[in-house]
Amino acid sequence: MSLFEDLKLNVEQGKKEAVLALVAQALDQGHSAQQILQQGLIAAMDIVGAKMEQEEMFIPEVLRAAKTMEAGLEILKPLLGVGDMQVSGKVVMGTVKGDLHDIGKNLVAMLLSSAGFEVIDLGINVAPAVFAQKAEATGADFLGMSALLTTTMPMMAATIEELEKAGLRGRVRVLIGGAPVTQAYADQIGADGYASDAGAAIKVAKELGAVKA
Ligand code: B1M
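That is the input. Now the predicted structure with CO-5-methoxybenzimidazolylcobamide docked in place:
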């Protein structure tokens, strides 16, 4: 079995010690942190997702796999930095109301921080009014929302409405993402940007910052 197959299997089975050892081994062999993240840790969660859908894996096992993935990610964190430590803007971000998924959101927050953005992470299950209040109170330039469920995506539109009501829409650029979210959905609800992954989120946030400036 190849190292990446082994890594994916151990994430899926929630074997933390083995995952930590395999991530270290992959780094020793010269694989980049980005490659280990995409082809090992994130790829494993895609398998977990498919098994969850087929009812071959259930919540406790999925949670264990998610925690194992996060343990592997801890090793990669310092290596995923993208240089450029100047502050590029302030981002208030969180997972929308009703949604408890935070791995992708945490990854986006982490990469935005390492790209020089100041990130204020509101966590999970964030109500539209809370997003708007925090954006106002912190003087945020960007508001980032993550949704992993088709049923919670409408909370993104509700949050944009809340920003409009608070008179913040002109000042705060809205960036959205998450597995079910698409560019078409972003256009439909009037978000300023959509990113399919954490790397793209940085690119889009920088572009939006440049447009604003
Ligand atoms: Co859930 N879950 N889950 N789950 N879960 C999904 C999302 C699902 C697709 C699995 C499936 O059935 N195939 C499915 C959603 C179906 C749908 O709506 N269409 C699902 C379901 C149904 C559920 C429950 C309803 C199950 C139940 O209770 N019956 C329940 C809902 C709970 C709730 O939120 N209210 C539930 C619960 C859970 C756990 C708690 C067990 C756990 C979450 C643990 C945690 O997050 N701390 C969990 C997990 C782990 C998953 C899967 C397996 C993996 C998600 C993940 O972490 N991926 C997921 C299947 C899947 O997505 N393949 C699934 C890795 C992560 C790095 O990727 O989050 O997509 P992702 O983030 C990416 C991009 O999307 C993007 O960048 C990230 C990094 O590249 N991105 C952004 C994300 N946010 C962004 C924001 C941006 C820009 C880019 O700008 C601001």
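The domain at 90-212 is CATH 3.40.50.280 (Rossmann fold).
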